Each structure stands twice: as C-alpha cells, then as structure tokens.
Amino acid sequence: MQRITPSDPNKAPTLWQMLHSVLAAAFGVQSGKNRERDFTQGKPSHFIILGLLFTLVFVLVIFGVVKLVLHLAGV
Known about the structure:
The chain is mostly helical. It has three helices and no strands.
C-alpha cells in the first residue's frame, strides 16, 4: 500500500492549499515552493475561479465597511 505524501508530484493541490496560494498572491508573499507546486500540479481554471471569488468577497467587504463608516458618521 503506497502512502500519498503532500510532496507527491501527481497529487493536485487541495482546496485549502489553492485558497492559501490565492491569498498569498493577493498580498504578494507566495513562497517559491508553493508557486512551483501550483504551476506544476494545479489547474489554472481553479485558481482563476478562486481569484475571482476572492476579489468579489474583498470588494463586498470594503463596500460594507465604507457603508458602515458613512452610516456611523451620519452621512
């Protein structure tokens, strides 16, 4: 019985690993090891979808914070 390790070159990144990569890319702090894993094992479509979802959530959070601050300021 062969055990699959996180460094297995045939194993695709998990959802959490891809989400971590998208967040690291947003802040510009992706490690070389993770970048290499993403480019060799990941599917571009998965990263594009996660990136778009992250961007949408980020914009909605910023919009909500601005609306809250304006409401509290009485504007």
